[in-house]
Amino acid sequence: xxxxxxxxxxxxxxxxxxxxxxxxxxxxxxxxxxxxxxxxxxxxxxxxxxxxxxxxxxxxxxxxxxxxxxxxxxxxxxxxxxxxxxxxxxxxxxxxxxxxxxxxxxxxxxxxxxxxxxxxxxxxxxxxxxxxxxxxxxxxxxxxxxxxxxxxxxxxxxxxxxxxxxxxxxxxxxxxxxxxxxxxxxxxxxxxxxxxxxxxxxxxxxxxxxxxxxxxxxxxxxxxxxxxxxxxxxxx
Length: 236
What we know:
- The protein is an alpha/beta fold.
- The chain has helices spanning 43-51, 75-81, 98-105, 129-142, 159-176, 190-193, 213-223, 232-235, and strands at 3-14, 17-28, 32-36, 57-65, 68-69, 83-86, 93-97, 122-123, 147-151, 179-184, 197-202, 205-210.
- The strands form 3 sheets. The protein has a 6-stranded mixed beta sheet with strand order 6-9-10-3-11-12, with helices on both faces. A 4-stranded antiparallel beta sheet has the order 2-1-4-5, with helices on one face.
- The chain is globular, with a radius of gyration of 17 Å.
- Residues 232-236 have low confidence and may be disordered.
């Protein structure tokens, strides 16, 4: 499959501090990839930079989407190109119901099987952690993106909600052939989605890229991320 997203030697700063350090990443059309790493490793920063968050400054490298350099494009233009991000900590939007938002951002009438009880509520107002994740996922799917970035979509979910979110993602992938970047530090979701490749990020660097996600999860569970710094993933 053709390359959809390509990140070349990307270095990113915020408030004069280097956060991302020479990131190289390729995601092909329809491919599922995961980005694992401990807290504060730079995973969410990478997601936000791909989506065009203006708080971060690209000091080196470039981001290509369908062979087009999008490094300087606004978030709105990136959404129109087909990039959608489910935020780890989505904002509260008072006065706007989910039922009003979804038809406006979707080219087609969204089909809602789960989460119907959220439709007539103001977005993320008094939502539980699980309800916020479902709301974010519904919004991403409604955009019909070419690339969906799910930042900690599995964080704080009970088994029932995790299974629902996994099922919803699988259905969207199958119907729309969406490429997917799953960002997580837990790894549970990967057992449901079976990614094509896993990337491990520590201290702003991708230190390992591995096709066997089960191997990655097994080693991280056994040794923790500290061992990853010594390239245990490749040596084991």
